[in-house]
Fold:
Amino acid sequence: MTANVKLPSSYNMLFKTEEKMTKRTPSTFARELLRSSEERLANTKQMEPPRILELLDMANTTFHKLSSVDLDQALFQPYPTEILFQNFTAGETYKLPLWLFNMDKVPRHVRLEQVESQFFHVAGPEGGSSKVAPGLSAAFTVVFTPQDNKDYQHTLVFVTERERFEVPVIAIGPRAILDFRDELLLPTCPVKATTERTHLIRNIGNSRAHFRLHTETPFSVEPASGSLEVGESLQVTVTFAPLSSGEHTQDLLLSYHTGEVVYIRLSGACEELAICLESNAVHLKNTYMSLSSDQTVSLTNTSDIPLEYYWSTQPTDRPRSRLQDGLEGKEGPLSHTAQDDSVFDLSNEGAITLHPLEGEIWPKVTQEFHINFKPQAHMLYLQTLYCHITGRESPLSLTVKGEGMGPRLVPTYSVMDMRNVFIGDNDWYEVTLTNKGLIDAPFRMSGPDTTFGRCFSFSPAEGVVLPAACQVVTVTFSCPVLGPFSEDLPLTVKGQPHPLNLNFRGCVIGPTFDFDVKELSFGDVAFGFPQTSLVTVFNKSFVPMTFSLRVPGDGSGPPSVTCVQQVKDMSRQQWQCCTAEDRRVKPKEFTVSPQTDTVSAMSQVTIKVTLCSNTVRRYKLALAVDVEGVGKEIKTLPINARCVVPYLEVSPPLLDYQSCFLDLLYEHKVQLLNPTSLPVCYGLLDQEFEKDQTLHTESPVPRGMIPAQSSVDLPVCVTAKAVGRLRRTLRIAVFGSTHLPLEVVLSCNGQGPIVHVQSAHLDFGRIPVLKDTSKSLRLLNHSPVPALFSVCMKQRKSFWRVEPTEGAVPAGGQLELQVVAHLKDTLDFEDQLQVSVQHGGTLTVAVCGRGTGSTIVSDKQFAPSLDLGTHYSHGSYQYRFKLSNLGLRTHRMYWRTDGKETKPPSQASLPPIFPPKKKEHRPRRGSGGSSRGEGPVFSLSPSRVELFPGHSVDMVLTGSCQSPKVVHERLVCRSIVGNTGSYDNTMAVDVTCCFVAPVLSVSPKQLQFYLEKAAGKAILPQYKRLNIRNISTLTLSMDLETVEPFSLCDGQGAQTFAATKAVVLDEGKQAELWVCLNPSFCEDHVSRVIAEFLHIKYHGHPQRDSVKLHGEIHFPNLHFSSTAVDFGCVLNSTETHREVTITNCSPLPVTYRWSFVDQQRRTASREAEKDEEKENTPHSAALAPSSPISSDINQSSAKVEETFDVLPIYGGLQPGEQQVTCFSFYGHMCMSCEVVAQCHVEDGPVYEVTLTAEASNMSFSLDPTSINFGAQRVGHVAVAEVLLKNTGDIGFHFTIWNPERTEASENKPDMSLSHKNNSQEDEDVDGQPLVFPPKGYVQAGTETSLRVCYVPDVPGRFEKRLHLQVECLPLQEIAVVGEGVVHCFVLNLSQNDPRKPDRKTLEQKMNRGEFAKEHRTGGAAEDPTPLQRESPGQVQPPEDEPPPSQPFPQLAHAQ
Structure:
């Protein structure tokens, strides 16, 4: 169908770059949708610039780089701007023109980018490209072939020299149309009232309508959304609720589910009514708090309609469904009262309430409003209320004014003068409060937050005074601060805005006290000796006094040091006047006790003042008294004293101790005399810090005290530290004295020890080498002090040593020394021993000796015999040792084996646990028979050694025996010592070793495990004990290995498992092992029978033993005859079944159930592939060729329960029992799915059976569907090939026949017949087309070749029909056309030509491929120019026959 549309002549005037969007009304929308595509294009009066996709570089395409067209516009303007198809029918073809106008002033190129589409095709200039002159256009034709009545979209992309732009192509499918009016006019309405209008709409379109309605205030619409089938009706109500007067208009938006929006105009008028209150102001009476008063105000409805109202404290109004909704918003201070829901609070204090707050006033009726005034405070209340009422745009205002009065409470006085008050004393006063009002007067008294105000207290502090009653309040004052005061005490009365003030004034004074003495006089005091005086304090006031005593001017440092502390503390080294460590800080010399105390009223207390002076001076100080709460130094008491340091005399000034042995203590005494009247403290100064002390002095009593006019004997001890004349000065200090200390000179002669040796020569004679040989040497001390000595040898590397090398000979005693000789060769040796005595000289002793024996030694046991003990055979045992030359000459040694002796071991070896396999029975070296001819068992490496003095060599004795036995061999060493040229037998070693095999006893020799999964219980590991005992003569080290699920553990019930375990067993010992079968590895709950071994491997021996492990773990299990069920591909909406046999293969009863857990569908992808294949195929046939799968089918895929089923879905099987399970598949429309069916076995595994199935339509393609043989010779066979392709997923049977022959024989085609009668095989084939094969089966996705044969019987044009039947699909007709021609005419033409082939002959030739060969060679041999060799292009069809729509390449092969 081609659109007959003319191009508008004045398109420049129609073109608008910017135009305000017009709103589409319902009538316009219906008119546009009811037009055809051509009518809508003809009514298109404007063009818009196309959307530019990409800007290109003009330098690459043209020389005209400049353009008069702006960059934001395309060089070509399309008309129409978008191509729109509507009201089309599926299967028909529609065409619309498209013009591209050159908007530039120079010629421009434009090209269409071809995008393949199944539904849209564009025809235009050749190659899709054109060069257009300025002002002219390029014409294109858009062809649209829909296959379904739905929406389509496509985009045409054009490329110019400067840009790429697009032209959208839209095909509008079925649409819904609701017949709304273009405008709805609503009746006049008062302000804040409502009116409505109902409109009946009907769906006059051709599709179901899903719509939404929306508008703005003051209009509303119901319903807001809905759905209408074609031809159905619905009532729509529009409500008009204005809040302001005047004309109101809005748009009602009708939105279709397909995206279109239609605008309906709504109009309405609003007016205001003449309504007012009786009075605009109300003055309320003065009212006491908690009392109330009432007032009334009225409002008259003079209109003819009921009016709704509500009161608020805000003048603004908000839109709401009901007027009282504003109260719930709480914008104003309105609140409900507890008594009546219609009474509301109109002030913040809850004093003014109004009722009713909201309601309705009928026409010509007066409504009274009651105002209740109940003040809560003494204040003036002023509130403006607003009545929001229907018919009034602005609210009616009402001003409410009222004054609240509080209680009247009057005190007896307002000022109280308290005069003088002792500090800390409690004074109290009374004040009477009288209530002169009509309501209760709650009061509270409190003191100000000041120093004196916090000292007041009240009883009672608060209360309530009834009307005409009195209340006495006691005011108590107790102050700890001195000074005058004047405080205002507030009396707060609840309900009164300001409190009353009671003024209390007066002065706080402190207590009075005195001492019993006028001063404290200590007189002369000795340095460091404490002295105490007493003083009494009298309190002369009537209040207690808390005081503290101190001595101003006393030191602030640590307490002064007493003479007792100086004598006892030996760490104190300061003896002069200042004893403090820091001389800048004075010590605290006065001590007052008690330092702080409290004296009751009219009482006294005794004070002790102690002076311990550490400063030589005269004291003139005072004792200060600080009174708590009064002040500092309220009173002072003078203190007088003088500190004096006494002096000492010493006798004699010189002490001589005569001769003194070193380090021996000697004692003499020195007399110290105190001639003064004061005690004195003395001490010896420390002497330890002097360097090079040769005379040490000390005293058992280094410090002490001497009373007045007394003396003391000081013991002095000296110790000589050096030899010769020694002298030392002893210094004695006086505590506190600044003079030099007293000195005593000490002197003596130092004398060392006297030591003698018993013998001056020691001869050791002939002694063995490399061994210690000792002799005694005695030292004698003839002095009273110990003698320290040290011993050494004269030679540097001596072969003698002395034990001990140093020490002390006791005073007047003796000490024995051990002289040890260690000779390293068989030579003569001499040396000298020197004894050095500290402070006593050096003594010399001569020593000599000769060595005998060998100097070659081993670090381990080696010669003369070596027993290697017992070892395992079949291994190499090595005994490593080291030979060292400890002599002074070189040794060249040679080792050999002198002889051997072999005998069986003392204990017969036992056979192994399991006998070895036959293939392992190999004769072992040394096993059985005589040992004659065997080599030595032991060998020494290296066998030749040259050992230098002091060097060592590592030797390895290796023994290897392949059979259990006892071996005795001798190793002999011959050597050359030094420069001698002869061999000497240095040593001979007898080696003995016993070789045995490992023997292990294992019980039991096989472990059996058996586990079953009990219902409702967990399966636990099973443990078996294995006892092993070492019956070998050696310790056995072995590794036990096993594999999962067997493991080794420490005991029954152990939670730690190991696959390997190392065991060491001593001789005759046994061990208990536990082998565990852990069923936890069977996570899949599948029964298993396990046969494994516990392998025993011995360290250092090739023998291997094993223990057989057999385990059975049984779960409830099933066996399936198949775990994959393939239903294949079935027809849509058909059902098929498959059976699977399940068997209980376990010894336990099985309970099972089925479920589906997974699903995969590929419907959409398969249909997309089919659609694409149909586009690429010239002719196709299917079950529903004109109904492609829509997106709705893809979106409504069936659930798995609707697709697959299994019966029975649950059940139980006894051991060995079988059950046949049937799986069903229902093929929904064009689906492919794969589902996993799970069989859940209780306490067993979960089995999965994969179900695969497809459902599809049968479809095929036939290429070609029309066969044109062209010109064919009469009587000659023409063959053409037709491809029958199965384009679906289901294989099908086909049958092809000639309907003319069937009608002639009066037989209808029977698709169930597999072949025809034999009589038909010999029928005449002239003039009737034949097909080979006439029937068959085509697998899914494959194709078969059908050969169509035709023999023209008469000249002239022929046209035949063949029918192809594919199972249940509609018949497909194949047209066979052509023309029979002859080269010449023969008069005697016989109709029974022997060369004329029959059907059977043609079929045989067709099977042998002769026709294919003939076509390749060009036809029969007797006709050199057969007509069949001509191409289809050389034979022209008749003029009245239309040319074929497309070429048939298959016919070229057929001819």
